[in-house]
Amino acid sequence: MDNVLNMGLDGWKCDGTDPYIFVLGYAHGHDGHVSERDYANLYYRDFFYYTRTKNPDSLIMARPVDSEWSFAPHDVMFSGWVGDDDPAFNGLRSALWSMLTSAQRNYLNFGSDTGGYRGGDRSKELLIRWAQMSAFCPLFENGGNGEHRPWLYDQETTDIYRDFVNAHYELVPYLLSAGTTAYTANVSVMIPNKDPSLLPDSDDWGYRLWTDIFVSPITQNKTQDVTVHFPEGDDWVDWWDGTTTHAGGSNVTLTFALDRFPAFKREGSIIPLDVSVDGSLHGDSRSRGHLTLQISHPLPAGGHTNVYEWKGTGVEAEYSVEQGDSDGSFGLNVVVTAYHKPVVARITGVCAGVETSVHDATLPGAPSVPRTADPFAAGLTGGWTFVAGARELVLVAPAASVQRGTFLRVSGLARC
């Protein structure tokens, strides 16, 4: 491996050569019989751990579960994929079954070959629906036999595909934080809604993407109406429309045009995002260089999250609710520890009026933060605005919060 490692590569794709040991029949090694499991552990670990002696940041890509078979050992499988699947909706379901089974066996991060790896007639609808699912998986990859390039289908395919690639990039802070936390707990980032062994007899292919996002993939051809089986214990806010919530434990039939997909945020959650492009549901290019915190329908119990980053200090964020007068108004405290990026908090499920005010509680006297049409242009003081149609309060923290942290106190809010 040294000739290649000396070129500075970041890792290897170890593509399931371990089952070939079966062609040897009864395999003998230095210490006697070598089972397939023994050989697989040696194969994947050798590539992973030896490569890390040359490049401490390297990794391998490997398969978690395919065809009910566990491939790589858990300690080296940080980024995996499942396959090879047909370019059809039965292939999408096969890939999804392998991912859900990988999750059940506590593999950490993985995805699938978007559109299916094998050659064949790959329809526009299949490529789009598969890409939408991949956007809400830890790994989003595209490749295989036959045509996978969205720009060679038509403009609509290209535009939708691009939107979901951008949505996946936005999720990087959430996915890194989820993966870090799941790794320490020896569990998967993906949490199946149902036992995968019950599929495909069940129509519930849904899963949580860690704790705060729920996904219900579209697994049938020419389908826009989907029955979503929401997990119990929490209510869920529509990813595309922050004004709509669904009760936990309910089964609801919803309609999703080709450019929309069944994804939902847990009510009361704080989801860290990296928003950098126009056309996003969670901001625009003015958010580039900021840490965006999406707070969906704040709950009286408050919320908290740890945001991890690659080779960085990370940050803690939380909010608390202060009940107001008998008119039903309430206040909201948003606290973020010192961070090297300025912070934007986008809070849905609230209404602001003339009585709403925001104060910078990190400073003596808690000076007010101005309400402005463009809070990103407010400069040192920070700013806020309310988007009535989206029922969203947008808070841009003062510039000095990068050094001292953020503590914004909002009063005079109402639920709507």
What order do the helices and strands come in, and which of them pair?
Layout: H1 2-5, E1 11-14, E2 28-29, E3 32-33, H2 36-54, E4 59-62, E5 65-66, E6 69-70, E7 79-82, H3 89-104, E8 110-114, H4 124-135, E9 141-142, H5 155-170, H6 172-185, E10 190-192, E11 207-209, E12 213-215, E13 225-229, E14 236-238, E15 245-246, E16 251-255, E17 263-266, E18 270-273, E19 291-296, E20 303-307, E21 315-323, E22 330-336, E23 343-348, E24 350-360, E25 383-387, E26 392-396, H7 401-404, E27 406-415
Parallel strand pairs: 1-4, 4-7, 7-8, 8-9, 19-23
Antiparallel strand pairs: 2-3, 5-6, 10-11, 11-12, 12-17, 13-16, 14-15, 14-17, 18-19, 20-21, 21-22, 22-27, 23-26, 24-27, 25-26
Helix pairs in contact: 4-5
Distance between the termini: 60 Å
Mean pLDDT metric: 94
Helical residues, percent: 10-25%
Number of strands: 27
Largest sheet: 6 strands, antiparallel
Radius of gyration: 23 Å
The largest sheet has its strands arranged as 10-11-12-17-14-15
Broad structural category: alpha+beta
